[in-house]
User: Which sequence fits this backbone?
């Protein structure tokens, strides 16, 4: 099955420190990978995507993600965390299924940035 | 402003009483989908539509129906809601399915008692 896994339910980091939110994927063929963020009482917002090309992808709000084919990972990173980055983060994979297209999400990682 | 609009935002209903959650997008997107979000389970796809009059089941379609009569609208119908359908529901749209980002509505919190 085409899927992504987020091994951490919660990540805690102090403001100003670098942050990493982990995601690994299991996909046959070329993966189409995404990161979304969800703030309280809001829908999901797109952060960045990897389709092809450069393994380091830059996205919104200073976030970036590194596609690593040998480790089947797509970790989300930011050099210096802000308290306002505290939110729920979802990794997702898009693929062609037997009946069409599907977008599968990980279970989410709650990021808490403390002052 | 580009947006996906869901209504209602909050709904409490009783078991068996038919309800519809509306979803509308103003971006002329072809692809639309519905998800439910439950604690510890992340988002699971209920149904999706690749274009007008084309719909298909996602991972958890039981107990739900959808229709796509117009490009902009994609309502979610619960013919006979049950308590296990208590959840947070999101509608999403994207220009295409495979490699473009999805825009999400603000969510509908449904409670079935």
Assistant:
């Amino acid at each position: 099955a085409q899927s992504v896994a987020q091994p951490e339910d919660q990540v805690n980091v102090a403001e100003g420190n670098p942050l990493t939110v982990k995601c690994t994927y299991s996909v046959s063929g070329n993966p189409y990978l995404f990161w979304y963020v969800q703030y309280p009482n809001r829908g999901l917002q797109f952060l960045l995507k990897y389709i092809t090309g450069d393994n380091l992808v830059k996205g919104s709000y200073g976030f970036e993600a590194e596609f690593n084919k040998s480790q089947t990972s797509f970790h989300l990173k930011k050099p210096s965390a802000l308290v306002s980055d505290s939110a729920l983060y979802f990794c997702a994979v898009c693929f062609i299924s037997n009946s069409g297209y599907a977008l599968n999400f990980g279970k989410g990682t709650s990021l808490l940035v403390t002052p | 402003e580009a947006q996906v609009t869901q209504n209602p935002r909050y709904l409490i209903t009783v078991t068996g009483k038919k309800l519809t959650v509306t979803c509308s997008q103003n971006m002329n997107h072809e692809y639309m989908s519905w998800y439910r979000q439950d604690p510890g389970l992340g988002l699971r796809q209920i149904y999706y539509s690749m274009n007008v009059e084309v719909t298909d089941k996602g991972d958890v379609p039981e107990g739900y129906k959808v229709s796509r009569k117009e490009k902009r609208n994609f309502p979610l119908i619960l013919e006979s809601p049950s308590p296990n359908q208590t959840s947070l529901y999101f509608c999403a749209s994207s220009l295409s399915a495979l490699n473009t980002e999805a825009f999400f509505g603000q969510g509908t919190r449904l409670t079935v008692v």
Summary: The radius of gyration of chain B is 13 Å. The first strand of chain B starts at residue 4 and ends at 7. The mean pLDDT of chain B is 93. The interface with chain A takes residues 4, 31, 33, 35, 40-45, 48, 50, 56-59, 90, 92, 97-99, 101-107 of chain B (CB under 8 Å).
